[in-house]
């Protein structure tokens, strides 16, 4: 697949750093070519050396790292041997780069416009005024509304998506021949991510640049890339056109990564019968008072959900939708402002402190960040012993046996009992968190984005583990997630949240195949399915939402989505919407859908 | 916005000072010291003792004393509300006027020491930050730890021994000017300025000569924490994402260096404030080694004489100056870094 | 599935405790601190002279470098009239060497006890103020803020001079000025810990608040205060010496470094350098040792 005249020719690139008495080489011999106008994906797990490789292509390494060897040929010259002044000319002029965590990459003390101007003037003769005008043009090109105002903004005043756009405006300001995008959408919300990638892809097409897109997400690769490079343990183990990669992965690592997506075709989880309303909430509401003001943040607004015995219900929504707060209210880690939480017929919001502590053996929670959820000073044995000590007491040796059994239940080796959290990886620790949550045999577990910090591969096996445990133990799950793929695999029913309200609920199959609420539809269409035969860039993009989520402090009077909805009418803006039952367990919060005014198109996927 | 912020900070400062005054007032009176017998001597007659106590106002109930000090009974004696810090028991003159003569000496000393410390520390700290892990950096680092943990009065004595006794390049440690020199008319209280106002450049250089040793001593001690701070903040700035990105986008070296420097300056302000405040009372020892007659020596004299109004006055004035310095530096920090909101 | 999972996690299933190497700077710190602790325990007994008794030889300079071997031989052979004054004697006839090595008993005792006292009170109030936030603890912090705005040296001087110049009063005075530092440090750390996942998890598991505070929050909030201890002990030694130097510290003839420097200060302009230089060198090295140790601990903590 390598052309005769590649734009960039990388050979045997090695990057490493010294620790006392040892040399660690995360990138040990990367070789590949990039052709003009090509969009190439570089995929690999966290820690596989993706970002390190991306930086090394520009002749840089994050301290204390050093480029140890190899060559990066660009325009007939080896970038790694160029003197500092010359490589500085190439950076930004011929090769542009955008990085993850864009807000940190922008200088916090300078206005965005000035920074873009500096980048432009570093490579082009221009007056300050001309650079500023160019900055405004670039911001407009990357899809920023009102660029004249935004050039005056500081990094901390921009949202993540906005900052990433500012970064790409800077990277493309000198029309480079190659754009390196290092996980540009990590940390962005699903709808923003899709929108951003669409815009980036279009901009690159307009400027005629080639692009190296570094990512962990197969969906991003499938929808935007022509060719895939797979980086595993510091080497490129596979280099294939994108369709071929998805159809016939060659390397065992690639096969492992893709397996989950192949298995997925097997259908939706079976519906649960009986035991309805085992856990339910009744108009659960949570307001947070704002300091120094009589306004409140309306985090959760009259949410009523119910989870049957042995059922997994997904709660999906973007950041700020209130889904995590719902989970915390269920656990009474947050005391609801109004409404009730009923577990097995008992209102837990009415329990006193001692009763509540007892109740906690029946309900548990697994948090998003596995490292943060365990006491860093304790061993795995201490961690697993804690719930037993609190709720059951008794013989120490027996408790230890229970802990070992719990480790085995999550497919971990008992030798881990003496390990401390800092010596373990994210996926192992998350299994320990799950083991700890299950050790007292709870009836109900809140899973608060348990897979969001894991690499896709680890994510897959964790979801499979959760599904298996549910089947074996008959627990109920509330699975909070923004990742629709995992919800589809694990859950029977799903509720979609937006700005503290549930806007749609139903079985996973109903909602995923035929979403009705405009927000659910946008969310699903923004979801990047790892399917290279139905690429997003080859299809007209379905109606996207405009702008960003409004502040939960001053919520709109009528429909909360009114400011972003493509189907909005004056009535929507005026009337508060109610969640209307459509039968068969489905409900939707949109007058126009209920009235049949919005034609249902089948979702693009499946 | 800015004005409101300054007003608010001033208000909080005044409240804090008020609490401080109350705390110090009671603290020194709760301690088992007898200022009256310190004044009249242990062998005085009971009548003499009582008379002295009456003169000092110590025969009045505690709260009445506080009232008078605060200035709530101006018919008896002026107090804080009238802008008076009271009358020194030891000397009989007003505490305010005494502090006004002693304070400029200290301010002049530590300001010069800070300037000198910065001139040394910024390049040295940068040297360390630009060569992380190398020998130069290790040297800089060990020096900063060493200088920051030294007994300054001992170094002052050492310098006196070496530069005055052995080499003879420094004057005897006997004050701001040689005892034979007639000091200029005090206008501002700052010797360097007053000599210039008086139009006596010879005395100006003499004062500078006398200040040399104490300033070097203090600057040496100060250079420890300042170098450490410059090195650390610069290292952090150089390793930050936005400096890396500035390199990635091909900005010239000079521009990148300016990015890093500005980022390192902001967080340094807080520490400088704390150090300055600390030095206001920490200069005591160096002042006494060189007999400079600063606020610190005034404090020693007052403490050893159990001179309560003077002690209260010194603590109040030093704390007030520290609070103003903190405020000024916070304002500079906010001007450097737009993320700091008022 | 499980077999593949095992495969995926293979590199993490066996646990090898990590090795931590002490760097050379840390070794210097540890050596100095160990020596000072040793002298604090045995210093008063191992010197050639009683540190609190004068000799008839006044202001004798220390032996020159060339004289040392001869003196050493004579001392071991027992042919000397009296044990040599390795660091000379001061204007009162005290043997400086014996006093320098006896002084840690005073200096370190004061610094250590003041530090422990302030550490315990500061950590206790810091935990309370950080974990239980209400108007009561808010008031506590305000009071601590006022205390912290006191000029340290002058406050210590006031407290000791007015309460009486004894070691106990110095300890109390130092503890008084250092407690707010620990309170603030611990509170900040506690505030950071309380929002962490494992604290939430402990709550979700049904632990009582007291148990969470003591079992989870406190152990994870202690490290900065313990690191600060090393620095504080060093500064407490400086402060103790400084108080003696201005005449507001322990009373003579207690062997104390600051007092010794102060005694020699008047002679130094006359060229008698030894009564001040040796005790000063001892302070200089000791405080440096504590600073180095504190810094090494801090770096180790940051590395995790």
UniProtKB/TrEMBL annotation, chain A:
<comment type="similarity">
    <text>Belongs to the ABC transporter superfamily.</text>
</comment>
<dbReference type="InterPro" id="IPR003439">
    <property type="entry name" value="ABC_transporter-like_ATP-bd"/>
</dbReference>
<dbReference type="InterPro" id="IPR013563">
    <property type="entry name" value="Oligopep_ABC_C"/>
</dbReference>
<dbReference type="InterPro" id="IPR027417">
    <property type="entry name" value="P-loop_NTPase"/>
</dbReference>
<dbReference type="GO" id="GO:0015833">
    <property type="term" value="P:peptide transport"/>
</dbReference>
<keyword id="KW-0547">Nucleotide-binding</keyword>
<feature type="domain" description="ABC transporter">
    <location>
        <begin position="8"/>
        <end position="258"/>
    </location>
</feature>
<dbReference type="GO" id="GO:0005886">
    <property type="term" value="C:plasma membrane"/>
</dbReference>
<keyword id="KW-0813">Transport</keyword>
<dbReference type="InterPro" id="IPR003593">
    <property type="entry name" value="AAA+_ATPase"/>
</dbReference>
<dbReference type="Pfam" id="PF00005">
    <property type="entry name" value="ABC_tran"/>
</dbReference>
<keyword id="KW-0378">Hydrolase</keyword>
<dbReference type="GO" id="GO:0016887">
    <property type="term" value="F:ATP hydrolysis activity"/>
</dbReference>
<keyword id="KW-0067">ATP-binding</keyword>
<dbReference type="Pfam" id="PF08352">
    <property type="entry name" value="oligo_HPY"/>
</dbReference>
Automatic annotation (TrEMBL), chain B:
<dbReference type="InterPro" id="IPR000515">
    <property type="entry name" value="MetI-like"/>
</dbReference>
<keyword id="KW-0812">Transmembrane</keyword>
<protein>
    <submittedName>
        <fullName>Dipeptide transport system permease protein DppB</fullName>
    </submittedName>
</protein>
<dbReference type="Pfam" id="PF19300">
    <property type="entry name" value="BPD_transp_1_N"/>
</dbReference>
<feature type="transmembrane region" description="Helical">
    <location>
        <begin position="12"/>
        <end position="31"/>
    </location>
</feature>
<keyword id="KW-0472">Membrane</keyword>
<keyword id="KW-1003">Cell membrane</keyword>
<dbReference type="Pfam" id="PF00528">
    <property type="entry name" value="BPD_transp_1"/>
</dbReference>
<dbReference type="InterPro" id="IPR045621">
    <property type="entry name" value="BPD_transp_1_N"/>
</dbReference>
<dbReference type="InterPro" id="IPR035906">
    <property type="entry name" value="MetI-like_sf"/>
</dbReference>
<feature type="domain" description="ABC transmembrane type-1">
    <location>
        <begin position="103"/>
        <end position="329"/>
    </location>
</feature>
<feature type="transmembrane region" description="Helical">
    <location>
        <begin position="153"/>
        <end position="174"/>
    </location>
</feature>
<feature type="transmembrane region" description="Helical">
    <location>
        <begin position="109"/>
        <end position="132"/>
    </location>
</feature>
<dbReference type="GO" id="GO:0005886">
    <property type="term" value="C:plasma membrane"/>
</dbReference>
<comment type="similarity">
    <text>Belongs to the binding-protein-dependent transport system permease family.</text>
</comment>
TrEMBL record, chain C:
<keyword id="KW-0653">Protein transport</keyword>
<dbReference type="InterPro" id="IPR035906">
    <property type="entry name" value="MetI-like_sf"/>
</dbReference>
<comment type="similarity">
    <text>Belongs to the binding-protein-dependent transport system permease family.</text>
</comment>
<keyword id="KW-1133">Transmembrane helix</keyword>
<feature type="transmembrane region" description="Helical">
    <location>
        <begin position="24"/>
        <end position="47"/>
    </location>
</feature>
<dbReference type="InterPro" id="IPR050366">
    <property type="entry name" value="BP-dependent_transpt_permease"/>
</dbReference>
<dbReference type="GO" id="GO:0015031">
    <property type="term" value="P:protein transport"/>
</dbReference>
<keyword id="KW-0812">Transmembrane</keyword>
<feature type="transmembrane region" description="Helical">
    <location>
        <begin position="277"/>
        <end position="297"/>
    </location>
</feature>
<keyword id="KW-1003">Cell membrane</keyword>
<feature type="transmembrane region" description="Helical">
    <location>
        <begin position="110"/>
        <end position="132"/>
    </location>
</feature>
<keyword id="KW-0571">Peptide transport</keyword>
<feature type="domain" description="ABC transmembrane type-1">
    <location>
        <begin position="104"/>
        <end position="294"/>
    </location>
</feature>
<feature type="transmembrane region" description="Helical">
    <location>
        <begin position="225"/>
        <end position="250"/>
    </location>
</feature>
<feature type="transmembrane region" description="Helical">
    <location>
        <begin position="152"/>
        <end position="178"/>
    </location>
</feature>
């Amino acid at each position: 697949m390598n052309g005769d005249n590649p734009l960039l020719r990388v050979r045997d690139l090695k990057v490493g750093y010294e620790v006392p008495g040892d040399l660690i080489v995360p990138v040990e011999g990367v070789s590949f070519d990039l052709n003009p106008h090509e969009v190439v994906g570089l995929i690999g797990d966290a820690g596989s050396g993706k970002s390190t490789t991306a930086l090394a292509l520009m002749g840089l390494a994050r301290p204390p790292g050093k480029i140890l060897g190899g060559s990066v040929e660009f325009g007939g010259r080896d970038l790694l041997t160029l003197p500092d002044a010359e490589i500085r000319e190439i950076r930004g002029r011929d090769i542009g780069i955008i990085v993850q965590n864009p807000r940190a990459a922008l200088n916090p003390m300078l206005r965005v416009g000035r920074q873009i101007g500096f980048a432009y003037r570093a490579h082009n003769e221009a007056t300050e005024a001309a650079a500023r005008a160019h900055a405004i043009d670039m911001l407009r090109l990357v899809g920023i509304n009102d660029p004249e105002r935004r050039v005056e903004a500081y990094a901390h005043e921009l949202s993540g998506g906005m900052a990433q756009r500012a970064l790409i405006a800077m990277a493309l300001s000198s029309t480079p021949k190659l754009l390196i995008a290092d996980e540009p959408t990590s940390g962005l919300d699903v709808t923003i991510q899709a929108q951003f990638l669409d815009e980036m892809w279009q901009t690159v097409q307009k400027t005629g640049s080639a692009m190296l897109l570094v990512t962990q997400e197969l969906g991003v690769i499938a929808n935007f890339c022509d060719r895939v490079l797979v980086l595993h343990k510091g080497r490129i183990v596979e280099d294939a056109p994108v369709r071929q990669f998805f159809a016939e992965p060659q390397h065992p690592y690639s096969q492992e990564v893709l397996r989950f997506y192949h298995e997925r075709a097997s259908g939706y989880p079976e519906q649960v019968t009986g035991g309805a309303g085992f856990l339910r909430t009744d108009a659960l509401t949570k307001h947070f008072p704002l300091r120094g003001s009589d306004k409140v943040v309306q985090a959760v607004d009259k949410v009523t959900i119910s989870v049957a015995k042995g059922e997994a219900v997904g709660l999906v929504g973007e950041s700020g939708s209130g889904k995590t707060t719902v989970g915390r209210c269920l656990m009474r880690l947050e005391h609801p402002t109004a409404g009730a939480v009923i577990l097995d017929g008992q209102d837990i919001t009415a329990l006193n402190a001692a009763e509540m502590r007892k109740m906690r053996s029946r309900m548990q929670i697994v948090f998003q960040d596995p490292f943060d959820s365990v006491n860093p000073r304790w061993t795995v044995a201490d961690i697993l012993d804690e719930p037993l000590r609190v709720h059951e007491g008794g013989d120490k040796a027996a408790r230890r046996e229970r802990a070992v059994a719990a480790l085995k239940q999550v497919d971990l080796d008992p030798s881990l009992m003496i390990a401390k959290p800092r010596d373990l990886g994210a996926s192992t620790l998350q299994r320990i968190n799950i083991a700890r949550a299950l050790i007292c045999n709870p009836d109900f577990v809140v899973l608060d984005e348990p897979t969001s910090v894991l690499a896709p591969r680890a994510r897959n096996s964790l979801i499979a583990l959760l599904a298996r445990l549910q089947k074996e133990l008959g627990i109920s799950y509330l699975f909070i997630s923004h990742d629709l793929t995992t919800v589809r695999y694990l859950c029977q029913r799903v509720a979609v949240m937006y700005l503290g309200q549930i806007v749609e609920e139903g079985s996973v199959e109903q909602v995923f195949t035929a979403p009705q609420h405009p927000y659910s539809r946008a969310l699903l269409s923004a979801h990047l399915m790892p399917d290279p035969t139905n690429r997003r860039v080859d299809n007209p993009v379905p109606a996207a939402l405009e702008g960003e989520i409004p502040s939960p402090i001053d919520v709109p009077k009528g429909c909360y989505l009114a400011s972003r909805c493509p189907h909005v009418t004056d009535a929507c803006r005026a009337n508060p919407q109610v969640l209307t039952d459509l039968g068969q367990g489905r409900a939707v919060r949109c007058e126009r859908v209920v009235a049949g005014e919005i034609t249902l198109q089948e979702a693009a996927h499946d | 916005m800015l004005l409101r912020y300054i007003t608010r900070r001033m208000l909080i400062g005044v409240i804090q000072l008020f609490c401080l005054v109350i705390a110090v007032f009671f603290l020194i009176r709760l301690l088992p010291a007898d200022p009256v017998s310190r004044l009249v001597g242990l062998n005085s007659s009971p009548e003499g003792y009582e008379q002295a106590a009456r003169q000092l106002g110590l025969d009045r109930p505690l709260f009445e004393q506080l009232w008078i000090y605060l200035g709530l009974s101006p018919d008896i004696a002026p107090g804080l509300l009238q802008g008076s810090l009271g009358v020194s028991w030891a000397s009989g003159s007003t505490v305010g006027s005494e502090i006004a003569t002693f304070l400029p000496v200290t301010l002049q000393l530590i300001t010069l020491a800070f300037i000198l410390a910065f001139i040394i520390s910024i390049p040295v700290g940068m040297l360390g930050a630009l060569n992380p892990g190398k020998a130069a950096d290790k040297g800089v680092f060990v020096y900063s730890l060493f200088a920051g943990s030294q007994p300054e009065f001992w170094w002052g004595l050492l310098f006196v021994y070496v530069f005055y006794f052995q080499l003879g390049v420094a004057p005897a440690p006997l004050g701001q000017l040689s005892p034979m020199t007639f000091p200029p008319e005090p206008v501002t209280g700052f010797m360097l300025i007053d000599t210039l106002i008086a139009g006596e450049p010879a005395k100006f250089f003499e004062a500078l000569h006398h200040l040399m040793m104490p300033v070097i001593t203090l600057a040496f001690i100060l250079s420890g924490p300042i170098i450490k701070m410059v090195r650390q903040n610069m290292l952090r700035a150089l390793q930050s994402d936005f400096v890396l990105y500035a390199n990635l986008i091909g900005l010239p070296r000079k521009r990148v260096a300016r990015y890093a420097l500005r980022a390192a300056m902001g967080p340094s302000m807080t520490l400088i404030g704390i150090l300055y405040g600390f030095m206001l009372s920490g200069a005591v020892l160096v002042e006494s080694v060189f007999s400079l007659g600063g606020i610190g020596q005034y404090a020693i004299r007052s403490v050893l004489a159990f001179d309560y109004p003077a002690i209260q006055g010194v603590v109040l004035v030093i704390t007030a100056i520290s609070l103003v310095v903190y405020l000024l530096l916070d304002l500079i920090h906010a001007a450097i870094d737009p993320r700091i909101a008022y | 599935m499980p077999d593949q999972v095992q495969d995926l996690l293979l590199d993490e299933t066996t646990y090898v405790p990590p090795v931590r190497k002490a760097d050379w700077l840390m070794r210097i710190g540890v050596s100095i601190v160990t020596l000072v602790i040793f002298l604090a325990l045995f210093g008063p007994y191992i010197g050639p002279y009683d540190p609190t008794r004068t000799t008839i030889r006044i202001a004798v300079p220390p032996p020159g470098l060339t004289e040392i071997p001869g003196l050493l031989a004579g001392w071991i052979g027992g042919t000397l009239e009296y044990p040599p004054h390795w660091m000379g004697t001061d204007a009162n006839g005290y043997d400086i060497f014996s006093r320098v090595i006896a002084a840690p008993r005073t200096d370190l005792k004061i610094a250590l006890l003041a530090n422990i006292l302030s550490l315990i009170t500061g950590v206790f109030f810091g935990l309370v103020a950080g974990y239980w936030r209400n108007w009561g603890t808010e008031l506590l912090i305000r009071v601590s803020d006022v205390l912290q705005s006191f000029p340290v040296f002058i406050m210590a001087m006031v407290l000791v001079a007015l309460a009486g110049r004894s070691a106990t009063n110095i300890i109390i005075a130092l503890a008084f000025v250092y407690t707010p530092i620990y309170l603030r440090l611990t509170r900040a750390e506690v505030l950071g810990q309380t929002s962490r996942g494992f604290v939430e998890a402990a709550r979700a598991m049904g632990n009582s608040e007291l148990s969470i505070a003591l079992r989870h929050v406190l152990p994870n909030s202690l490290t900065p205060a313990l690191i600060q201890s090393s620095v504080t002990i060093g500064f407490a030694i400086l402060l103790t010496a400084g108080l003696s130097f201005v005449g507001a510290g322990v009373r003579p003839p207690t062997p104390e470094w600051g007092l010794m420097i102060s005694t020699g200060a008047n002679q130094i302009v006359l060229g008698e350098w030894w009564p001040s230089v040796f005790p000063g060198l001892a302070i200089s090295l000791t405080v440096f040792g504590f600073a180095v140790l504190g810094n090494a601990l801090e770096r180790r903590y940051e590395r995790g």
